[in-house]
Amino acid sequence: EHYMALKITVIGTGYLGATHAAAMAELGFEVLGLDVVPEKIEMLAAGRVPMYEPGLEELLRKHVAGIEGSTGRLRFTTSWEEVGAFGDVHFVCVNTPQKRGEYACDMSYVDSAFASLAPQLTRPALVVGKSTVPVGSAARLSALLTERAPVGADAELAWNPEFLREGFAVRDTLHPDRIVVGVESERAEKLLREVYGGPIEEGSPFVVTDFPTAELVKTSANSFLATKISFINAMAEVCEAADGDVVKLAEAIGYDERIGKKFLRAGIGFGGGCLPKDIRAFMARAGELGADQALTFLREVDSINMRRRGHMVELAREAVGGSGGFLGKRVAVLGATFKPDSDDVRDSPALNVAGQIHLQGGQVTVYDPKGMENAQRLFPTLGYAPTALEAVRGADVVLHLTEWREFRELDPAELGEVASVRLILDGRNALDPELWRGAGWTYRAMGRPKA
Ligand code: UGA
Asked: Does the keyword section mention tRNA-binding (predicted)?
């Protein structure tokens, strides 16, 4: 097939890039991945993924050159020159974290990727930005390409935001809900239709826009998701005050298809490397554009969300009782990652709660199925246990803070034997209250009646 002749490079092999590179190889292309960190490249070239993501390592090993039985379509390098010579289409997948002490995002990885790539573009190429960036970045980067690429205007830019979720990265990349491309020419659109021919044939909608709209689709989608979570968490606050049940409420409003059931799980709120920093960067950018009033509600979304963490700490303090607060109390924390099926602890509400309790004198013991290493690196002073059972041993209160399947399958009776007090607070509204109460536990959850 003629489109398979296109050669693809992926610049930045973190979460997004590693997944995108493997997915492009799966679609049948020859792919070259580049990262500036040699250790990352060595690992990937050996068929190992530097993070936990279900199905990604298998997909990688299916295609990485040199691995027995692989298609050999996927290779890795640290050489910009090689990337420039190889690629017809270059995907830029570097990250844009929040700047320290500021709302704005840090564009330095994107800027340096473009600065390194441009001088290597000695033949016509399409550069496709996938990173989440402030609106207006694509126009600026497009001018930079034309100016610095040896092929001049034959080095073209497109913007193609990514919507994958951690934990579902492979599936979301191979079968996306939609593909959004911001382009300035028919040639760019045509190339991207070729690249995404597989998913398009399977029914993924293909939305063509200008640059600013493509950039905005990403930040507005994440803002909407964050708003939905904070909305239900605001309802949880009201439910607690009025003795209502936010879980029932979410179910009931969710039957209205205009509202929908998804992303209405109340609890300790959203975290991770995306939603929190994206809404802040969006506010910062709107401010620069003189449109800050349009997004003041996101400040509220952010503060409702941050309030959840403090509220969980308060519920725990209240639960262990006494005027001494957490002093001398053992607190078991189930979950460290910002969500299940990931080892990512960036801006994790669970670890934030654990850290606050530790600072207030509680003896915290954390267990997480996949996030232990990352958690220990970030919060070395917390206690850790190798299993949920060991974390719960001797605990005065158990906090369920990340809704791993493993925690839903725990046997409350078995845990009850080792806990000092049978008291569990569900910060994710994900456990079965009847199951725990049936085994003699006091079960409490956020936004639900105490019962
Ligand atoms: C999010 C978006 O969902 C993706 O579409 C987007 O591509 C990605 O950010 C990104 O910008 O790269 P992700 O950060 O992987 O994906 O995680 P989500 O599944 O969105 O969950 C975010 C947080 O919200 C988690 O802490 C989760 O526990 C919390 N959450 C989610 C709730 O508290 N309640 C819910 O009902 C749903």
From this structure: no
